[in-house]
């Protein structure tokens, strides 16, 4: 077999071996629920766990992060080792020359450099205009390198893309956290609204039961002539009004249960509508946070760690890198290239002039004279950078104001909850006293009903005050990124 044929066979094998066996698949890792939600009391921890693991928006954000990691992998491919090969042979004609070459190029980030090496081998005779293909009988080895001295020295499109995709990946991770905070906050709000409306049903049920039980006694008293019929009519009016209030409360509770099912899902993502039997003990809504304990964190730390502001810091770096890339486009292209080659073996058909060690150094230079394209792109990049800086300041101020409002709301909610508790105690005391006066004949039926409904209204206000406290606490936990409280730790 001719040396040229042997090299062609080896070259083909190297090209086949150099190909990747399979593409790397980057897939998101889903974490399934380890156990189904129980049918017992539904606690906030169960709701947060369900929403964190199954809510579609959170799963979507994980897929966006996986896509960003894929973009980073693709950008890193700009610095992959490149294997190249070329071969040809004359089948007929005056000349018999055949030629084959295999080489590799490795881009390097520093100074936009590239190193390369190759081996080539020829056999037979070539026309004078192809004399460069001649080698000694053992072939020629060549190594070399390329450096960028002006444009592309500090940054180029490849290095920009690598860094930009890294930053985009970091932003995707922050986006996951932002989505998780938003979803968990909404899930907690839906849960506490469901609990509060469930407790309101109990208040109206008790109020209706009192009126219905009183109707039996009043009917007997009317038949005996001890009480005028107007009292029975008035009580029937109270029954209708209280039944209406109960029906509205039941409707609101069912709506809240359906809304909560949006965040409460099984392993397959199917919605689970909680029932009234799953309501927790009423004391759960009474456990309000300690205001002083919530204020232990430093204000500057809370703002610095907010993912929105971290996202802006990354966006600023991306914009600054883009400005640097466009400034690079304005510079002239000046490249330095050096090669070292050596033929081995007996002198081939090209003669003794190829039997030497050759060192070649050269430069290339180019520059657009007007550079309007580069200038326009640079101005746009600078404008985008200034826009991000202004938006960052606005969002930082907005977050600071929102945090102040949350603290104000939370503090007021805690005070109102304490006042509502006192109001309930006083209203219950008034109901007890008025019922006693009525039994002794010194009271008025109208006042008894009024006291009962006032006590029920006070209980509703207490429930809603506690609900506002829980909602404010959930907002505070989301604003301060309390991952443990949000079921994300």
TrEMBL record:
Q: Which UniProt keywords apply?
A: Cell outer membrane, Coiled coil, Membrane, Transmembrane, Transmembrane beta strand, Transport
Gene Ontology cellular component terms for the protein in this record:
cell outer membrane; efflux pump complex
Give the organism, scientific name: Erythrobacter longus
Its main subcellular localisation, reduced to a broad class, is membrane
Q: Which residues form a coiled coil?
A: 371-437
Among Pfam families, the record links this protein to: OEP
Its recorded name reads Transporter
Q: Which family does it belong to?
A: Belongs to the outer membrane factor (OMF) (TC 1.B.17) family.
Its annotated compartments are: Cell outer membrane
Q: Which domain of life is it from?
A: Bacteria
One GO MF term, please?
efflux transmembrane transporter activity
Q: Does the keyword Transmembrane helix apply?
A: no
The UniProt entry, under Gene3D superfamilies, shows: Outer membrane efflux proteins (OEP) (1.20.1600.10)
Q: Cross-referenced SUPFAM superfamilies, in alphabetical order?
A: Outer membrane efflux proteins (OEP)
- InterPro entries to which the protein is assigned, alphabetical: OMP_efflux, TolC-like
């Amino acid at each position: 077999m001719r040396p040229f044929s042997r090299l062609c066979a080896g070259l083909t094998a190297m090209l086949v071996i150099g190909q990747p066996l399979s593409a790397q698949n980057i897939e998101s890792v889903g974490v399934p629920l380890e156990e189904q939600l129980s049918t017992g009391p539904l606690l906030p921890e169960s709701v947060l766990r369900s929403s964190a693991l199954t809510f579609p928006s959170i799963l979507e954000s994980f897929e966006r992060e996986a896509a960003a990691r894929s973009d980073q992998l693709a950008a890193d491919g700009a610095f992959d080792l490149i294997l190249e090969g070329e071969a040809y042979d004359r089948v007929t004609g005056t000349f018999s020359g055949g030629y084959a070459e295999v080489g590799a190029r490795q881009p390097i980030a520093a100074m936009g450099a590239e190193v390369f090496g190759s081996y080539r081998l020829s056999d037979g005779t070539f026309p004078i205009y192809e004399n460069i293909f001649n080698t000694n009988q053992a072939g020629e080895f060549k190594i070399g390198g390329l450096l960028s001295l002006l444009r592309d020295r500090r940054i180029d499109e490849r290095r920009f893309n690598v860094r930009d995709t890294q930053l985009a990946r970091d932003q995707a991770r922050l986006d996951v956290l932002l989505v998780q905070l938003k979803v968990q906050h909404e899930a907690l709000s839906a849960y506490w609204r469901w609990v509060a409306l469930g407790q309101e049903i109990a208040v109206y049920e008790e109020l209706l039961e009192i009126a219905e039980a009183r109707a039996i006694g009043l009917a007997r008293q009317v038949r005996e002539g001890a009480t005028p019929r107007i009292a029975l009519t008035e009580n029937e009016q109270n029954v209708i009004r209280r039944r209406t209030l109960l029906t509205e409360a039941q409707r609101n509770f069912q709506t809240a249960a359906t809304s909560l099912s949006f965040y409460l899902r099984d392993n397959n993502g199917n919605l689970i509508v909680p029932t009234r039997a799953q309501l927790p003990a009423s004391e759960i809504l009474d456990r309000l946070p300690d205001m002083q304990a919530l204020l232990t964190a430093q204000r500057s730390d809370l703002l610095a760690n907010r993912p929105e502001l971290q996202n802006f810091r990354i966006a600023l770096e991306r914009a600054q890198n883009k400005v640097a890339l466009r400034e690079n486009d304005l510079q002239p292209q000046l490249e330095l290239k050096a090669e070292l080659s050596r033929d081995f073996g007996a002198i081939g058909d090209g003669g003794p002039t190829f039997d030497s060690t050759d060192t070649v150094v050269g430069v290339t230079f180019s520059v657009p004279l007007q550079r309007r394209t580069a200038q326009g792109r640079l101005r746009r990049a600078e404008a985008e950078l200034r826009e991000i800086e202004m938006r960052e300041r606005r969002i930082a101020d907005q977050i600071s104001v929102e945090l102040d409002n949350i603290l104000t709301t939370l503090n007021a909610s805690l005070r109102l909850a304490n006042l509502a508790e006192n109001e309930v105690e006083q209203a219950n005391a008034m109901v007890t006293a008025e019922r006693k006066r009525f039994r002794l004949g010194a009271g008025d039926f109208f006042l008894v009903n009024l006291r009962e409904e006032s006590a029920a209204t006070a209980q509703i206000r207490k429930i809603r005050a506690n609900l506002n406290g829980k909602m404010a606490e959930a907002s505070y936990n989301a604003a301060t990124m309390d991952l443990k409280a949000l079921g994300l730790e």
